[in-house]
Amino acid sequence: MDDMIINKIVKLYKKGLTQKDVAEQLDVSQTYVSKKLRVEGVDTSRNVRVSNDMVREWIQLYKKGCSIPDIVKKYPVSYGTVTQELKREGLSIESDCVIPEEQVDRWIELYKDGWSMVEIAEEYDVSVSTVSKRFRIRDVKIEDRRGVPDKIVDEWMELYEKGVKQAEIAERYGVTQGSVSLRLKKRRRLKNNLEVKNV
């Protein structure tokens, strides 16, 4: 199954789609796409001709407070290209700027749907402090969220093992399918680790 997805990722990316577009089309995270392309040895640097005029415009925009994601929206280049050129010109790059605003929008959606910051950080391969910092910038109210009680996850696991689909479980409990999927994945991993220890 994983091999099929990897083949699709490589094929779509080589057709000219961006990593973000590939992720959206296959309903996976952009981090997952990026990792799989690197593992498959695919060159992820797009060959875009960057002129001196273009770089000068980026510098002006960045100095005026425009973030790297905002600059990327105006030009057909990657975040890495803009960051590299700005660093080459001696500018100090704020690490927060390299996180696309659309990604932060998604984090906020997930958080409102019941995901914890730890779960979001794990899903997007970033630190919890990065998620927390972006939430503070966006004035997101941070709650004391311990996650879904074990008893509920036990019920989900029981239903899932009886053949009930994750989407149906999510609908029954008023949560997202991603939330169900993430917790079931963790529970299976924990169960497997315990079985290995007991052997």
Task: Supply the key terms.
12 helices, 199 residues, 4 domains, 66% helix, globular, single chain, mainly alpha
What does this structure look like?
The chain is mainly α. It folds into four domains: 38 residues; 47 residues; 37 residues; 49 residues. The chain contains twelve helices and no strands. It is globular and about 60 Å long. The protein starts with a helix and ends with a helix. The mean pLDDT is 77.
Helix/strand layout:
Blueprint (H helix, E strand, L loop, with lengths): L1 H13 L4 H8 L3 H10 L12 H12 L4 H7 L4 H10 L12 H12 L4 H8 L3 H10 L12 H12 L4 H8 L3 H22 L1
Overview in brief:
The chain is an all-alpha fold and 199 residues long. It folds into 4 domains: 2-39; 52-98; 101-137; 150-198.
Q: What characterizes the major β-sheet? A: none
Q: Name the poorly predicted regions.
A: none
Percent range for β-strand residues? under 5%
> How many structural domains in the coordinates?
4
Number of strands: 0
Distance between the termini: 28 Å
**Class by helix and strand content?**
mainly alpha
The helical percent reads 55-70%
- In DSSP terms (H or I, runs of 4 or more residues), the helix count works out at 12
The rough form would be described as: globular
Mean pLDDT across all amino acids: 77
Helix and strand succession? HHHHHHHHHHHH
**Over all CA atoms, what is the radius of gyration?**
20 Å
